[in-house]
């Protein structure tokens, strides 16, 4: 099922139908003989407006995609530049003949050591750079393919040919006839089919942009600021720590990185228990089942892998996506897993059998983030063009969508069964109340892209991580700031709460993992 069309497109369809009906009626009613030409004239006036709107939408989408592509290329260039800069040697040092150890100053000895390290670089470093280059090429190719599939110009041409064909079939009356007496009866348009009733009822579908709309005010009660302190730092990975997951008892921590590995740690001691290296490319997301016995990992290699805990043994690999798997979400009972992918689809898996149950898509853009409501009824997806879509999971039915940001939805979560919280690439956080269709509350809470959202177990607060180097904790639903944690090593790429709500874990772009405790 696809999102609702714009009202201008609906008006065009109504004019086409009205023109055909008016032409038929004019055969019998002489007074209506001029109505079909008038309707057709309005139709041809409307077509340039629709074409102009379509061109504007295409330009806006192209601009957003170009900005995202430019940002991605810039990040890759900066990453390569930092790595090369760390290994550069001054030209005069390279050309200098080696001196005896006794004649070297401490600075010269340091330069000599760096030069020896550069000579001893392994092929693994070069392979890593080549892998990142291939990943960038894949993203560019998928973006170009997505733009080609839109085919806006061809759609307009087909619509114009259909209108012309419909107009050619309309025949005006050739003879003068006495019209019969007008009838008081009118022909009713067919009513749409009704979907099965569910509780709570789904919102009215809409496809509207509604940034800046304020949600209703709630009674605050007592909102107490929080104090968090870092109790342990783990030098966990050699690249971005993009995913974190804790077991329900809070004793085992799983970290996933763009260095292609998943690592298991003891939270109390920081001891590394296992390194899982069966993925070929970087890790985007991690989940632990409610019983703490299974770990799911989503990767750039287009697979979802399931691991047995605590030993970290690979159980099975879920395959079927044709693009990188960006996000995972799990039902409260731990039996249903949903994966969102850059291939524009969401796949629903039976976790007990490791089997595919359903595939959901509206083919409007790559899926960056997915989330299930606590009651397991609603599935929300954040897309690369800033659209948030809502699905009924059991029926596999599209329900509603809203556009709140021109940048991608990087993170998404349900604060409760009727409220969706998203973090976007432009630094904004949005709250969509499903009981108020078409309205979305938008707040600029970070100066960099929001990379992660974690809902506290009591659902009275949530944490956001950002590339601006901060983790911020907010009261829900007032969005009052409760605490701010600074990451000294740079961008924060992931965040998660422990089940007791008193432990917070963050992962940085430099491979560091921090374990923080709520001060009493």
Automatic annotation (TrEMBL):
| The organism's place on the tree of life at top rank | Bacteria
Report the transmembrane regions from the record.
Answer: 7-28
Asked whether the keyword Amino-acid biosynthesis is assigned, the reply is no
Q: Name one Pfam family in it.
A: WD40
Sequence segments annotated as region (Disordered): 165-212
* The WD repeat ranges on this chain: 234-275, 276-317, 318-359, 360-401, 402-442, 443-484
Keywords of the record, alphabetical order, are: Membrane, Repeat, Transmembrane, Transmembrane helix, WD repeat
| Full protein name | Uncharacterized protein
Q: Which organism is it from?
A: Oxynema aestuarii AP17
